[in-house]
Amino acid sequence: MLLRHLSRRARVFPAPARAAACLRPGATSPRPLCSSSARHQSGMATFGRYTHAIVCRVPNAFKEAVGLSAPVSLDEARRQHEAYVRSLRQLDVDVIELPADEKHPDCVFVEDCAVVCNGIALLCRPGHASRRGEVDAIRAVIKKELELPIVEVLDPKATLDGGDVLFTGREFFVGLSGRTNEAGAAAVAAAFPEFSCTPIRVPAGTLHLKTLVTMAGPDILAVSELDDAQTVLKRIEREATFRYQTLTVREPAAANCVLVNGTLIHRARSECPESCDVFEDRLSTNLHPVCISELAKADAGLTCCSILVRKSKRPQL
């Protein structure tokens, strides 16, 4: 498989030996495959730690968002988005908030526009053509306000949504979906050559890889009981360079959560009651529930609404 060959050109840093303390007793401890470089260990030490976030307000045009499955209340969608943004600020994240872009109904879902890791920003090429103009505003913010180096996807045949890019702190998994193709996954491998980058086929009917699996903590994969989710989990486990722990949640929507500065942002009890019990029983990390039921009508999850960035402090001259 061509992409598999391309992705393996990236240097692979297997996992260091370390204890995982985020899952309560009852989970199997991860088994490291072998030692890794000091740089990669440093990367794991800062996994889930962020200084900045890019978000975008909900436009009136959100009523025409791609994939909208039911009538939406704009007022409620905005209240939920504002609460999400407040949550990030409460977790000591400097939030850069873009104004609503009425030309782009899906502009609130900024995640699909860029992948940021180790101080490098890869600008995506969204798989739905109507969304490609959203990248311009994100490019401007990353360049002018965050002052990060930018990598562009040069292959005109490539498609890449950030929602298909799962970074575990040790390696990348890139979903091959209706929005991301092999050329897009190869762009991730080229932009971040210090990490292994493995393509994972996403079942038909699922929007993104992170619809099914995200990180609930360092080395902990959150995944639902859905057959499609379990199939993807097996693919990840088969290809991974590290043995991860898994946290299985009951409601499919709960598998999409966000780890920010030691706190897990997850769907509220009113939306995913049984999964909230799992989070509370199995995780020792801080928990912060939020509601996004109106935004979710456009097939969205918590990760969709922000681009999270860890910006290193510049040395004092």
Automatic annotation (TrEMBL):
Question: Gene3D superfamilies per the record?
Answer: L-arginine/glycine Amidinotransferase, Chain A (3.75.10.10)
Keyword line = Hydrolase
Q: Which residues form the active site?
A: 208, 304
What the entry lists under InterPro entries is as follows:
DDAH-like (IPR033199)
Enumerate the Gene Ontology biological process terms: arginine metabolic process; citrulline metabolic process; positive regulation of nitric oxide biosynthetic process
Q: Name one GO molecular function term.
A: dimethylargininase activity
- Residue ranges annotated as transmembrane are none
Q: Which family is annotated?
A: Belongs to the DDAH family.
Which protein is depicted?
A: N(G),N(G)-dimethylarginine dimethylaminohydrolase 1
Lineage start: Eukaryota, Metazoa, Ecdysozoa, Arthropoda, Crustacea
